[in-house]
Structures are given as C-alpha cells and as structure tokens.
Amino acid sequence: MNQGNNPLYGASQTAIGTWDAGTTTLATNASASCTAGSIWIPDGALITSALYFVQTTFIDDDAGDSQPMALGYTGATAAFVASIAISGTSSVWDAGIHGTLVGTPILGNDAAQDTALELIELNNASMIHLTAPKELLLTLADERTVAVGKLSLYVNYVQTGDFA
Question: Are 158 and 129 in contact (CB under 8 A)?
C-alpha cells in the first residue's frame, strides 16, 4: 500500500486500553474487551513495546485472589502478560507500573549477552508484527469473577505497510 507523503504513516502510535472491574464484569473463562469498548491494533502494525499501569489492585470475588489473568489480543491472549494468578508472587496485578513480554529482551541460556548488538537482537525478538487487525483483551481463567481492579495497557507500535 503506497502511503505517499502521509506524515502519520510509519509514525509511532500508542493504543490504550482500560479495564475496570468496577464498571465492567470481568467473568471467569472469558476474554474481556476494554471497558469503554473494543480497542484494535491495525493490520501491518509492528508492536515495539507495551507496558501497563494498575490503578487499583485486583481482587477476585472471594478475596482469595486465585484467579489467573492474562493480557494480550485476539489469537494471542497472553502476548503481553502470561496467565498469572492475582495472588502470584510477582505482584503483576498490584497497583503500579509494570512491563510486559514485548519490548523486553528474550534472554536464553547464555548469560553473556554483553554487547549492544546482542541485546538489540534479543529485544527485536520480543517485537510482534501483526498480519491482521487485533483487539486488545484481558483474559480470565476458569476460576473466579474479578470484583475489584483497574488497569490501563499502553501498546506502542508503528505501521509498517507490510499487510497480510
């Protein structure tokens, strides 16, 4: 697709999705669209990084916090955050800023990633090229309904022009 002199083409963009358990029911064994409606990332997007901010710590309906949750998009519901219980030791669902799997170097068995080029390549491996439009999703396992919690996911991407 020829974008000519379109100044927005190829510019960095951010898709922002917010989920609020106080407004939207976050039910078990389901993927939830954003509270304000579906947020889509376009075909051809190259996702370069993502982070999320938990405004209100998540709590499930029995306060045991055993409910696993994941952040992702259609077809890859754990692309940003793997399915982890609210009570998990990593505290990924507690209030505060959190990183994701995208934009984080994928480290292997070799602990000697000691050159800039090695780290750049490890970071590149975490980026995602979309070949179809994808909706941002918060996915809950088959455990409990989430009663309290609010987060915003920020997905940074550029439009490559390489479409499916």
Answer: no
Please give the model's pTM, rounded to 2 decimal places: 0.86
Distance CA 24, CA 161 (A): 35
Task: Give the whole-angstrom CA distance, residue 141 versus residue 68.
Answer: 6
Condensed to tens digits (0 to 9), the pLDDT of residues 144-159 reads 889 999 999 999 999 9
H helices present in the chain, as ranges? 116-124
- DSSP code of residue 7: T
Closest CA to 80 of 58, 48, 110: 48
Q: Which CATH number fits domain 14-159: 2.60.120, 1.20.1740, 3.40.462, 1.10.10?
A: 2.60.120
Instruction: Please check whether residue 106 is in contact with residue 122, taking contact to mean a CB–CB distance below 8 angstroms.
Output: yes
Chain CA centroid to CA 139, Å = 11
Beta bridge partners of 80: none
Burial of residue 14 (CB within 10 Å: 0-12, 13-18, 19+) is: exposed
